[in-house]
């Protein structure tokens, strides 16, 4: 074998070990452990509260909208960290670009407030 191919042997060994471990844990957990089932143990529950009614009830789109807006603004704020770390190296050009970025962020935020996307009814 060539030396370049030999470099992949540890990666292959780790892959085999990881897959083998997962398979072993699944098999062992199926063989060990209690096998008793009852109506009370098979009930679905969430946070200790018993389920009532159908799970397919409609609910407001506001939940999704708030979640998407949170992710959007959270990802945009993440861009502030590399800028802050490299603040001195970027100089005035980096400062101007960040001001433009923050202005666009604020325009989007004020647009969301104007459209009342964060208000609950």
From TrEMBL:
Its EC number is 7.1.1.-. The keyword Translocase applies. It is found in: Cell membrane; Membrane. It is an enzyme of class 7 (translocase). Gene3D superfamilies: NADH:ubiquinone/plastoquinone oxidoreductase, chain 3. It is a multi-pass membrane protein. The chain crosses the membrane at residues 6-28, 63-83, 95-113. Its main location: membrane. Belongs to the complex I subunit 3 family. InterPro entries: NAD(P)H_OxRDtase_bac/plastid, NADH_UbQ/plastoQ_OxRdtase_su3, NDAH_ubi_oxred_su3_sf. NDH-1 is composed of 14 different subunits. Subunits NuoA, H, J, K, L, M, N constitute the membrane sector of the complex. This is NADH-quinone oxidoreductase subunit A. Keywords: Cell membrane, Membrane, NAD, Quinone, Translocase, Transmembrane, Transmembrane helix, Transport. It comes from Flavobacterium granuli. The keyword Cell membrane applies. NDH-1 shuttles electrons from NADH, via FMN and iron-sulfur (Fe-S) centers, to quinones in the respiratory chain. The immediate electron acceptor for the enzyme in this species is believed to be a menaquinone. Couples the redox reaction to proton translocation (for every two electrons transferred, four hydrogen ions are translocated across the cytoplasmic membrane), and thus conserves the redox energy in a proton gradient. The gene is nuoA. It catalyses: a quinone + NADH + 5 H(+)(in) = a quinol + NAD(+) + 4 H(+)(out). It holds the Pfam family Oxidored_q4.
């Amino acid at each position: 074998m060539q030396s370049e191919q030999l470099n992949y042997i540890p990666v292959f060994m780790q892959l085999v070990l990881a897959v083998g471990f997962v398979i072993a844990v699944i098999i062992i957990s199926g063989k060990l452990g209690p096998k008793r089932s009852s109506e009370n143990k098979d009930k679905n529950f969430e946070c200790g509260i018993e389920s009532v009614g159908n799970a397919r009830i409609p609910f407001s789109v506001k939940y999704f909208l708030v979640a998407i807006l949170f992710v959007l603004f959270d990802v945009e704020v993440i861009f502030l960290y590399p800028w802050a770390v490299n603040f001195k190296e970027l100089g005035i050009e980096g400062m101007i670009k960040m001001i433009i970025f923050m202005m666009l962020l604020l325009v989007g935020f004020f647009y969301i407030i104007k459209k009342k996307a964060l208000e609950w009814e």
